[in-house]
Amino acid sequence: MQSYTFQLGTDPWPEAVTLLQFYAPVDLSLPANHELAELISRWRAAVLDEPITLLDSDYLHVTLECVTDRVAADIPAGERAGLVEAVHRALDGVPAYLGRAGSCYCYRSGPLIDVSPAAPLTTDIHRRLRGAVQSVRGPDSTAFPVSKAHVSLGYGTATTDSDPINKKLRQIDPAGAPLYLPRVELVEVAIDQAAGQLTWETLESFPLGPALRSDT
Prior knowledge:
Oligomer: single chain
CATH topology: Cyclic Phosphodiesterase, Chain: A
Helix content: 25-40%
Mean pLDDT: 93
Number of helices: 4
Strand content: 25-35%
Low-confidence stretches: none
Number of domains: 1
CATH superfamily: Cyclic phosphodiesterase
Number of strands: 12
CATH architecture: Alpha-Beta Complex
């Protein structure tokens, strides 16, 4: 694990800059996520003494898409309204996500919680969001590199061997829990590099439809 640097494209993210992004927030207060809330508390306890800044529960999320052609300050209200309208249309009828979160492993950036199956998030919903953003802002507006769906539990603040951390995380059983994501949010994200934290203001919430049946 290394000390994590928030990135704006290929460059360090300036602290004074905010960005528009689309998240699926992980709401641990929902009954469907109570098992996950308990498991997250155990994962946090396992890495509490490590050089990791843990995210507050209010900021746990799956990143789905980012607007990358302009920083938030350069996107006026009219353009934001057009973006919101396009995303509402794109997500109409899309079911809420039901899957699993876990295992939790310490990667280069810090502890990540795998999300499975990933396809409904990183293929379907991401594709719809990308199409909506590009329909409003053009094909060069979404340079966000798509990765497998995950939830960052926190971010590394120093370089250290990940193996002992992963050994502690692997002792926690069960290794995963059901995950329910009933909405997508357009958020304006700010970072505190020194504290290793990100925070955001929700600009619009996009409720998803009834969840499909799941074996989780």
